[in-house]
Each structure stands twice: as structure tokens, then as C-alpha cells.
Amino acid sequence: MGAAHSSATCLSSPATTNIPRCYLFHRVSKPSSNSSSIPTIYLHLQKPTSNFISQNHYSLKSPCSSSKIVPLSCARVRLMETQEGSASKPVIDFHGIDEELIQKMAYDALVWSSLHGLVVGDKSVQRSGKVPGVGMVHAPFALLPVAFPENHWKSACEVAPVFNELIDRVSLDGNFLQDSLSRTKKVDVFTSRLLDIHSKVLEMNKTEEIRLGLHRSDYMLDEQTKLLLHIEINTISSSFPGLSCLVSDLHRSLLKRYGEHLGLDSKRIPSNTTVNRFADALAKAWTEYNNPRAAVMVVVQPEEHNMYDQHWLCAALKEKYNVTAIRKTLAEIDKEGELLPDGTLLVGGQAIAVVYFRTGYAPTDYPSEAEWRARLLMEQSLAIKCPSISYHLAGTKKIQQELAKPNVLERFLENKEDITKLQKCFAGLWSLDDSDIVKRAIERPELFVMKPQREGGGNNIYGDDVKENLLRLQREGNEEDAAYILMQRIFPIVSPMFLVRNGICHKDHAVSELGVYSAYLRNKDKVIINDQCGYLMRTKVSSSNEGGVAAGFAVLDSMYLT
Amino acid sequence: MGAAHSSATCLSSPATTNIPRCYLFHRVSKPSSNSSSIPTIYLHLQKPTSNFISQNHYSLKSPCSSSKIVPLSCARVRLMETQEGSASKPVIDFHGIDEELIQKMAYDALVWSSLHGLVVGDKSVQRSGKVPGVGMVHAPFALLPVAFPENHWKSACEVAPVFNELIDRVSLDGNFLQDSLSRTKKVDVFTSRLLDIHSKVLEMNKTEEIRLGLHRSDYMLDEQTKLLLHIEINTISSSFPGLSCLVSDLHRSLLKRYGEHLGLDSKRIPSNTTVNRFADALAKAWTEYNNPRAAVMVVVQPEEHNMYDQHWLCAALKEKYNVTAIRKTLAEIDKEGELLPDGTLLVGGQAIAVVYFRTGYAPTDYPSEAEWRARLLMEQSLAIKCPSISYHLAGTKKIQQELAKPNVLERFLENKEDITKLQKCFAGLWSLDDSDIVKRAIERPELFVMKPQREGGGNNIYGDDVKENLLRLQREGNEEDAAYILMQRIFPIVSPMFLVRNGICHKDHAVSELGVYSAYLRNKDKVIINDQCGYLMRTKVSSSNEGGVAAGFAVLDSMYLT
């Protein structure tokens, strides 16, 4: 779980030097001087390349180790059982596809994207992150959906309401949040500030009666174990509810036209209704707030190249529910915001029913005290926060680590079946005071990643370095081990894919990550919405580097059920 | 009538120096060394500004003459009768609109354009004219529809099928086309080449049994006479069938949201179905051709920043009728094209049912012999040409001038009512051998424009210069007078408008031009389609220069019926 978020950034295209720079989707967590953020736990990091900041690169199975790895034998061994036949395999013979057909499809896909608003701002064009309608470029996308086992898709859908409920329960346990994050607080200024706000709210004895969550749980299929492993749940600013639907539509449109040639049926792409379901949830929350003159406020970054994704959601909100959304930065909210004595939040004189965050998850989103004041102001108000500070904290990686500990889920959930469902998809995650795991990692370092708790990237330890570092820590016997955690190393399936970026179609080896959107809305005891909403598939180029770590940046994708 | 065509071009934005250059829609007729083109007759020209090449600027009433002008008393006096209450007046008090509301509307409009494919290629971005999906910017648009009298709109719709029929009849009279253009042929290499192709086709005794016309008749409301005057009919490459529909949708969407504040009703924007009607006509022509394996071929410029307009039409053709369109340049057709003995046109091995031109109307479209060979090849084939060489020639300005002569329409049309309808909307147009008109023009030069027959721009004569030049020609008594024509000077209504270009909303004084799309399809004696299809409104900034001529570039607009 964590505050990592997808966004679009800009990278020099490797293809030629004179074409405009292309957009890459990646999780943003810019290192900053005052940044200390939430620990990144589930994702393997590598050093950021010159202009590519990311915390979400995936490990690539190194050729030498691939055939020898066997399932971990440890506390989590049950997760490692191979599910025969469930792994994603390419359903398309990519080598057999006619080059001319690919070019035709890519051209049609580019046209489709342009006509249907599958676009982002192009960072190489001035104002493209501020002014809509200028400097647009198609969102990067995979030309074809990624093959994905239907049973895994169903499981991920089934578990979504359980995650929703879990987040809600955890959010209500203020002491659990404060206690679990107390060590993080000491080393991470950002989490510390979030906790301060949380404390103030606790002191106010303020209850969030109406609670709205628009989450996205991210998963990867592990080739070793054939399991769908949960990477994290995003409880703040889950991106691409709009564009993900469009990519599904794009792929459906392409398969209607070319499916026969490819032996693919457009009906195998699952329906993706995230944008409408999220709009529905926002509208229903707005209705619960019960002030017809109030608006939804989207809290945005001052510059946002992924604005069209957000605009699609607001367009659905307006068109289907006639609810108006306004867009404000944290700085603007600090400047224009006020609390009425009854708790009503006014921004620029406009009453706010729902605060929907599309920023505020990273230290860089709070460059000054103004942004922190704005966050506190909203938190103190009666407006429905999506998410509240409690939901935000419940989604941090540190909390996910706590929840992965034995018998912790049982504290929040009664239903044993639900608990089993969640545990089945958790990836392995251990602290270094677990001597059995440390022993195992020294024996089989290729199955683990040693990660610093603290966010920042570039400091993950792989392969033999895991062994050496663990042995060193054992020798030294000091407190340094508390700075690390051990993670199960995920080996996603690598497949050849056609990736379209900046108007150019490349064939490359890539791995995919599934995001499952879910919405949760309750008012006191009444659960109004608790559903899976749709999905996002992101496909990333993989290339092994010296450390055996995958480098890559994502394009939007959809899935083809197998 | 003429071969002038709208396109997007690029101009440095006057607002700031560091924002990207914006797009302007104007009629393209680039002067070129071998260009001599068809005479521009109905439009008042001014010298092209540094980077603005246009032949379609409108005269702006100069303040001094405005209150004094009275209707012409001449052969066309019937056209000058004032129709009370029919002139377009602003229905919105532009001075009274809240600035904040305008900014909100402009923002929403920019978002709408981006999400709904109301886009063009941005010339300042490389590849934006070649590769779809890169370097997109919203099409320039007026923020609000232009007020337009319903009776004029109805008249223009009613006369559309008559124009369709007229073009068809004229196209069948090869001798009339050749004879009427014989003098133009001597001074205009471009027309001469078109006539050569036409002659070859005549020699072949080839009959175009299936004839498809996708036309656009352009009109302006004359403030002096309150008449809707016909400027020209485009029989080749009528642009914006796609984007014009989107602008109507945009305005409808804005009025649904803001109409109440503005006192405007979205239902007063007429339905605009051009893109579907044009797709329907192409599909029906394809059906008449009767080869299920044949495609529609869109003949395109090598670089086309207005490609999305074309893509919308092809998308409708594919989605609604499952007819595939391919895109080829004239040079590609020369390279890949062949004629089978039975007359079938193959391009790259693909049989072509319908050739739809979105290029080929200007000398610059034929930079080498290859393009002329391609044009001839297509003309010699059995493929349905939209337009055929005869339709193309029937749409030239010179032919329109001929048709405006007394008793010429009667040669082609039987129905007196139809003839009256056409004559009612023709603007005044005379050759200099009409001594009455020359006399009148010497007396009232402010009501005329003296224009060279030959295209190129910048040589129009206005005001007192008309008088002086006419007197000089009378004194000299040589043949030079044949090089000029006299035109009724049109004084379109100038209104304050909000124009949105390159993400910036400006208030400016502007004039509007109505384009009425029409489709005509017949197979031998069977008329399959003969309809008005929809409309395009283009609104241009006006500013008087020393010559009293309007400078301006157009944004897309729709109309609000009054």
C-alpha cells in the first residue's frame, strides 16, 4: 500500500534526436531535500536515469537464475504454490504478425486516440500542463491487450470489496495508524506531517461520517509461482480512471477491425466502466452531503500533463449527474479557502461537498507551509475527503507491511474467507528481525530484495549483495537492520509487445501490471457503494541491467482474458 | 465558384512571443512560379501579410462610407433590395458578459475540444502534419455561435439541391466548360492542365455514369442589402465536414451549461450532420460501384495539419458502413497506381471504388509531372471521382461568372423557380465590357471591387482607385480591360466575438461566412442523393487597413438561429 502514483513525464526519445520528446507513465516520487515519504516496499527500485524518476520498476528474471528458482519455503510458502495453467502467456504469435498489418493497426490506433481524447499534455510544449487544448499528444499505449488469465481477473475483482472494507476499518483505528507509523515518523518528515494532521483531527474528536474511497489495487502475475501478487493499494489519487477505459475501447475497436486476422475476439476484453463508476461514486457522495449548491473540488497539481484523465471524470460527473467540479491547487485552497462556523468548506466562495485529491501524495506536492495549511483546512471541514487523512495513512506501504504480519488482519475483519482472500494475494514481506527469513535470504538471495524502508529509490539490494549485506548486519549486530525490509522478489512474465509512444510503434519485451479500481462509500452505518469498478493495465518495457533489475516505463494497456 | 480551399496554417501568436504558434484557417492559394490558377472573383484580396497567405479576406465597411451607401441601381438591383429584419445581429450583449464566465466557458470549451477530437495538427510541432496523435492542438473556434436569421438559413438549404443539379448539368456540357475557360487557359497554366485532362476524357468518349459531388456553397450576409450572397461553390475538397459538426456540438454543450446565464437556448443551433451525410454519400457511391473488395481512396496532401477533419469522415465511413478508406498522395498514386484493361483503378494492388479528393485543387498540389499523371490516371479509370475533372471545372470561379450572365442558367435548368432561387443569391459580377456598370462604378466606386481575373492576391483595387483605373482604361482603350472584372463589394456585418485560438480567448470584431454542405449522387438517370447536409460557419477577425479591406483569419463557428 502506498502513496505512489502514476503520472506522465517526459523523456528523450531513443529513436531519433529530432523528434519531440515522448511521454512516459510512471510512478512519481521525486526525491527532494525535505522528502522522506513513505517507505517503498513492494517495488524494486533502480537508480533513476538522467531524466527518469520512478519508483516502480520491475525485476526482470536474469537468464542464469530463471530455470533454477524454486518456490520459497517459508512462512509464506502457501503463496508460492504453483497454480498450473494460470500464468499469462502471449495469445498472439507476435513473430508471425505481418509488419504491414502492425503499421496499419498502429496508424488506426493513433487516429482513434486523437479523435477520442486518449491524450496527455506533451511536456515539450509550453503550457501543455496548464492550458487544456494545447500541446496534446496521444497517451502512450500498447497496440494490443495483454493476455490475462480470467480466474486471476475474477479473483482480483472479488477481493476488491474486501480491500475497500479493510481500508475503512483501518482508517477508524487512529491508534493503530499512529502506532504503526511511529518509527516511520522519526525518519520521514512527510509521513510525520500527515500524522500531525491526523493527530489534530483525533484531538478534535471529529468523525468522518460520510467516507468515500476511490482506490486502485495494483497486482502482478509472478511467473515463478503463477500467482497474482498484490503490489500495493492506492487510496489517494488513483490515476487513469478515465484513460484506462479509453484504452479498453481502443483495443476493442482494433480487434473488431483486425481481430479476425489475429485470431482474437474483441469480446474477450472485459468491460471497463471505471470512469462512470467513479463519477457515480462522487455523485452519490455529493448527494449524501446534501447541499445542492455545493461542488466537487478536484485538488490538482499546478502543472498536470495527465489532466485529460481528470477531465474525463469531471465530464462524466457533469454529463451524467449534473454535478459541477472545480479545480484548485493546494496553494489556491490555502489562499481562497475558509471554514464556516458550521464546518462548511468554502473555496473562492464556493461551498465544497467533496474534495477529490489528484495531488497531495508526495512531499513535492507540499513545497511550502501553504499546502500543509490547505490540507489541514480541508481535513478540519465537513467536506467529504477522498481520501481523508485516515484513508491516506491506511494506504501507506508501512501499514500494508503491518497488515501482512500474522494475525493483524483478524483485528479488522471478521470473515475468515475474506482474510484468506487477502492473504492469498499478498506478496511476501518481512522485517529483518525475522531470523528464519534472514537465514533463508542468505541461502537464496536471488529470491529476495533488500529494501530501505525509506522512499527515494536507487538503494535496493539484489542478488549476492543481499547475502553479503545480511551477513554484515549479523556481524555488526547494531540497529541498522531496522532500516531495511526483505521483500519477495517478483518475476513478472516478460512477453514481446508492440508499444506505441510519440507516434512510433516499437516491438519490445515488456511486463504488465494490473490495477483494479474500486469505490467505497458509506454514511454512518449505511454502506452505499462497495464495488470493483474496472481496471487499468500498464505495460512496461523490460531490460535487464547489470543488477538484473528491470528498467522500464509504462504504456496504457487493457487485458485479453484467457 | 472556385478551387479555393480552407486549410490550417500557422502564424506567430500576437499575444506573447514565447507561446506556441497558433493555427489559422484560411483559404489556401499559394502563389507559385508556375501558378496562374483560376481567377479569384468573389473575394476581396489584400496583400498577404508576412506569414499569412490567403485569398479570402473580407471587406470591412470603412466608417466614412457606412452611413451613406445606398443599394446599387443596376442590372442586379433586385438583389440589393433590403430584406427588413433579416440581418444578423448579435443576440448577446457581449459587453455585459462577466469576464469570469467567459473564462470558465473558454476553459470548458478547450477541455471539450480535447476530449472530443476537435483538433488539428500544430505546425510548430514536427511530424504533426504526417503522424496522427502527435503535436495536436484544439482547432481554433468561436466561443459562441453566431446569430443568423433562420429565413436565410432555410433559403440556403433550399437552394443547395439546385446548385447540386446545376453543377451536374454543367459538368456534362464539355463544350461549355472548354469554351468558357478558353481565355483563362491562355493565362493560367493550372486551368490549362485541368482542361487538357478534360479534353483527353472527352476524346475517350468516356461517360461518368456514377457521379458523386460533395460540395460546399459559401455565403455572406451583406449588411447593406441584408441579403445572403453566394460567394462560391467548392466542388473539390470541401473542408471541415468533420470538425464543423463538432463545433456545433461544442456550442450546444456550452449552451446547455451556460445558456441560462446568457439567455440562449441550445436548441436554436441547427442540427449539423455533415460528417454522417458525407459518409453516407461515399458509402452509397461505393455500393453503386459494386465491388465489395474495393476501397474508398482519400487523396491527401503529403503534409496535412487538418487531417483529423478527414479522419472523422473516414471513421464514420468505417463505423457506420464498414467501408474502408485508404489515404494516398498524388505522388503515391503515380507510383503505385495502375489501370486494369477493364478500367479498374488499382493503387498498391487495392481496387478503388471512389476517389475522394482532399488535395489537387491548387497549382502547388502538382509540384511535378508525377501528380498530373496521377490525376489523369484516376480520371481515365472507372473509379467514381469526387470530383471528376468536369465537376472540378464546373466549380471554378470563371464558370460561376459565366453562369451569372443573363440567360446562361436557363441553358442548364428548366425550372424557373430554381433559376430565380439561384439568381437571388448570386453576388454582382460583371465584365468590363458592360459599359453601364463601368459608368456606375466610376460614379460610386465604393460599391465595387476591381479584380484581376488571375489568382494571386494583393492586386485588388478599392475605393477611388477603382474610379481612377476605370477612367484610365477608358482613355487608353486597349485590351487591358479584359484582365479585370468588377464585383459587387460585400459588406458583411461586423460583430464583437470571442475567438479562441491556441488556448487563448480574445474578444475581437469579426465577420462570419456560412458554408452549406451538399451531396449529390446519381447513377445514369437515377438520382440517389440530392441534399443539403449541414453547415460550417467560419468567423474571421476584421480590421480595417488603409485600403479599407478586412484582414482576418477564420475560426470555426456554428450558428444560432434568430
TrEMBL record, chains A, B:
Keywords: ATP-binding, Glutathione biosynthesis, Ligase, Magnesium, Metal-binding, Nucleotide-binding. Pathway: Sulfur metabolism; glutathione biosynthesis; glutathione from L-cysteine and L-glutamate: step 2/2. Transmembrane segments: none annotated. The keyword Ligase applies. Its cofactor is Mg(2+). It catalyses: gamma-L-glutamyl-L-cysteine + glycine + ATP = glutathione + ADP + phosphate + H(+). Gene3D superfamilies: 3.30.1490.50, 3.30.1490.80, ATP-grasp fold, B domain, Glutathione synthase, substrate-binding domain superfamily, eukaryotic, Glutathione Synthetase, Chain A, domain 3. The keyword Ligase applies. InterPro entries: Glutathione_synthase, Glutathione_synthase_a-hlx, Glutathione_synthase_C_euk, Glutathione_synthase_N_euk, GSH-S_sub-bd_sf, GSH_synth_subst-bd, PreATP-grasp_dom_sf. Residues 295-394 form the Glutathione synthase substrate-binding domain. SUPFAM superfamilies: Glutathione synthetase ATP-binding domain-like, PreATP-grasp domain. Binds 1 Mg(2+) ion per subunit. Its EC number is 6.3.2.3. Belongs to the eukaryotic GSH synthase family. This is Glutathione synthetase.
